[in-house]
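Recap for those who missed Tuesday's class. We walked through two folding examples back to back. For each one, the amino acid string is listed first and its predicted C-alpha cells come directly after. Nothing is annotated here on purpose, so try labeling regions yourself before you check the end of the notes.
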Amino acid sequence: MKKIISLNVNGLRSAILKGFTAWIKENDFDIICLQEIKMDSSYADPDFFINQGYYSYWHCATKKGYSGVMILSKEKINNIFIGTGNPEYDQEGRVIRADIGDWSIINAYFPSGSSGEERHDFKMKFIQDFYPWIQELLYIRKKIILVGDYNIVHQAIDIHNPERKDNPSGYRPEERAWLNAWFSELFDDSFRILYPDKQEFSWWSYRAGSYQKNKGWRIDYQSISKPFSACVVNYKHHYDIRFSDHCPIEGNYNLI
C-alpha cells in the first residue's frame, strides 16, 4: 500500500519552522506532494529532505518567492517530468510528474483567481488547456493519480456557505462545470469514492476565525483515473495539522 500526502504549504520555509520536517519524519508516508513552496531553483537540492528519508524533486517558479511544486519520495524515482510543455504556465512552477512502474503521480498547483479578474481569466485558460493535456497523457499512462490544490470547489457540500451570492473565484459556475467534466469523464475523486456524502474541508481563510468555526472550502484533491479507482483504500483530511491555511490530505492506495 502507498500512503500519499498532498499539501499546499504556502511557503515551505514557513512550514519547516512550524514543524513540517519533524512531522514527515514521524510518519511513514511514501510520497509527499507539496504546492506553493515559494522557493527558487537555487534551493532545489535532491537531498533537501534526505535526513527525513526522502528524495526531493522540484519544479520552481521563475519568479522568486512564488508558486512552485515538489515531490518527496521514499524511493528514488528515475522518471521525472517537469511542467506541461507550455512556457506560459511552466514558468510559474505548477506541474510535476513522476512515473513509477506502470502508474504515475502528478502534483499540480492550479492558479488562484482570487486576486482579480485578470488572474481568474488566467486560471480559466490554464484549466482549459490542462484538460486536453491530461487527456493525451491518459492515452499513454492509464494509471494516474493527480493530487494538489485545484483552487476549485466541486459541489455545494464542499463549501461551508454554498448559498453565497458574491460569485468568488473558486466557486464560479464555469469552474465547477469544468471540474464536473473532470470527474465525469477522466477521473474519480478519491475522497468521494469512499465518502460520497461526508462534508470535509481542506482550506480555511485566515480571516475571522474561519478555521476555529470550520468555515472552509474543499479545494485540494486526489484524483485517480477511472480504470484505476478500485485501488483507493483510505482517505483522510489531517484537520489538526496546521502548517498553512490548508490541511494535508492523505490517500492510501493498493499499489506496488
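Example two. Treat it independently of the first, because the proteins are unrelated.
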Amino acid sequence: MASSHPASHRTHVPLSSESGGNPFDNDAPPVPIHIVTDASQLPREFLNPSPKRQLVVGFDCEGIDLCRHGTLCIMQALYFQFGIKLHNVMDTQIAYSLIEEQEGRTRLPDDYISFVGLLADPRYCGISYPEKEEVRLLLRQDPNFWTYRPLSELMVRAAADDVRFLLYIYHMMMGKLNQRSLWYLAVHGALYCQCFCVSDNNYADWPSVPPIPDNLITEGNAPEEEVLSILDVPQGKMGRVIGRKGASILSIKESCNAEIFLGGAKGPPDKVFIMGPVKQVRKAEAMLRGRMMD
C-alpha cells in the first residue's frame, strides 16, 4: 500500500528470483508500509498504468461483508463497491493447480492450497508463517477483527505479510508455467473475475477473455475454448443439486472436467457457476438440470 503520508511501519519484501542473493535477507533495508484511505494517496502508476511498462500488484482481501450474499473476494468487493472490473489477473491458486497438472499430479475436485501452505512449499518460498495462525485464532474469537479502527500493530503487520510475499511467489510460479498453462492462467483469471459478479448484459462491458494463441493451435492438440456459464436454480431445487451431505454436487464435479461453484456464501443463492471447456460445461449443465428434475 502507498500514500502521500509518512509511513511509520516498515517491513522486508523478498527479492525476486531474478535479483540474485538471498530473497529473505533481513539485512536488506526495509520498505515502508503506507495505509491508504483515499484513492488520491495511491501511486500514479497504479491509478494510470502504462501498457508499455509492466506493473505487478499483489492483492489480498479479508472478506468484506456488504450484506449482499456473505463475504466477498477482492474482485467482487471492487466490482460491487466501486464498479471496478479487474483484468489480467494472475491467481496464485489457479497457477498452483496448473503447475501441479504440469508435473503429472492428478487434480482433485475442490483442490485447494492455503496461503500458509503455499509459503511453506519449498518450490515457492519454503518458510513458515506462524503469525497467520494467531490472526486466524483472533478471527474465530471475534469475526469483526478486521473492522476495528485505527488498525493495530498486529493488523498492519498481518495485512502486509499477506501481500509482501506475493511478488516473489509470482516470479517463481511464472517461471514454471509453460505456454499452454500461461494461456489457461490468463483465461481462468478473467473468468474468475466475472464469476459471482452477475451482470445483466452477459458481461458485454467486461474485458474479453484471451483467445487461444496461434502457437497453441496445432493439429489435434489445440486447447478447447473455455467459458463461464451461470445456471439458474428454481426455488426449492438447490437441495437436490447439492444432495445429502453434498453427495450429488460432488458426483457431478467428479464426472466433469469443469469447475462448479454454488452461490450462497459468495454469490446469489439461486445460481450455479460453471467454468471450463465448452463441452464439459455443457455436460455439467445437463447433469445439474437433471438433478433439478429428479
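Answers for example two:
The radius of gyration is 21 Å.
The chain is about 35% helix and 10% strand.
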